[in-house]
């Protein structure tokens, strides 16, 4: 029955090259369906982060097609909705956090898409509680530890209540207990996910299937 459900995201024959001319993706095909948590693996430089950025419209493909949430996405205006509905958590949280305090960082996205002040207060409180970050609400963001920044970056995306999570190395800088909390949290969330990570224990606990980028192609991994 699941094969009859339209994928949330479909990538077809996607090609991408750096400005240096180096080919990174050479005909990638991929589908993400509701409820899936897909582990995206591969060696350093294989193009994993690039694929997430292409899906989110932060990079432009050389050729190929990206379908997201029932529509073809080609131009910048097409990806504005995608960035709200498919939240990308960057590998470096300093690229994501720019407001003075944690609560202000979480409020920025919902306010930007037209939520009322009252709605945003509720969203921020709910999101901080979900990630067990209530104690950081008024902290100055740039003074947080690396692990705290990583969780706050995830919280800023969760505050937008996306349909899909694109997670780039989400366990970096996290201690053992926080990794376990993240495993429990992600396993219980309803969102579909694409998760880039080199932490195989984490992926084995969270992912429902695994694909590997190798030589510019995406290969399905059999459990």
UniProtKB/TrEMBL annotation:
Q: Which CDD domains match?
A: ABC_cobalt_CbiO_domain1 (cd03225)
Q: Which residues form the ABC transporter domain?
A: 9-222
One molecular function GO term is: ATP binding
Q: Does the keyword Nucleotide-binding apply?
A: yes
Q: Which Pfam families match?
A: ABC_tran
Record key words, sorted: ATP-binding, Nucleotide-binding, Transport
Q: Which domain of life is it from?
A: Bacteria
SMART domains linked: AAA
Annotated family:
Belongs to the ABC transporter superfamily.
Cross-referenced PANTHER family, in alphabetical order? ENERGY-COUPLING FACTOR TRANSPORTER ATP-BINDING PROTEIN ECFA1 (PTHR43553:SF24), HEAVY METAL TRANSPORTER (PTHR43553)
Name the record gives this protein: Energy-coupling factor ABC transporter ATP-binding protein
């Amino acid at each position: 029955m699941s094969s009859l459900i339209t994928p949330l995201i479909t990538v077809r024959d996607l090609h991408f090259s750096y400005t240096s001319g180096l080919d990174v993706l050479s005909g990638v095909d991929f589908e993400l369906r509701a409820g899936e948590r897909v582990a995206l693996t591969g060696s350093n430089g294989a193009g994993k982060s690039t694929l997430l950025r292409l899906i989110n419209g932060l990079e432009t493909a050389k050729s190929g097609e990206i379908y997201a949430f029932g529509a073809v996405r080609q131009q910048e205006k097409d990806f504005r909705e995608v960035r709200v509905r498919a939240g990308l958590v960057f590998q470096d949280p300093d690229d994501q956090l720019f407001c003075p305090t944690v609560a202000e960082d979480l409020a920025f996205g919902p306010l930007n898409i037209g939520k009322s002040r009252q709605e945003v207060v509720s969203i921020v409180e709910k999101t901080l509680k979900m990630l067990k970050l209530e104690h950081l609400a008024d902290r100055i963001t740039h003074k947080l530890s690396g692990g705290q920044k990583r969780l706050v970056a995830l919280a800023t995306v969760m505050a937008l209540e996306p349909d899909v999570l694109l997670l780039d190395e989400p366990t970096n800088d996290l201690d053992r207990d926080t990794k376990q909390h993240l495993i429990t949290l992600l396993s219980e969330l309803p969102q579909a996910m694409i998760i880039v990570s080199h932490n195989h224990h984490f992926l084995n606990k969270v992912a429902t299937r695994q694909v590997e980028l190798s030589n510019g192609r995406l290969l399905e991994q059999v459990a």
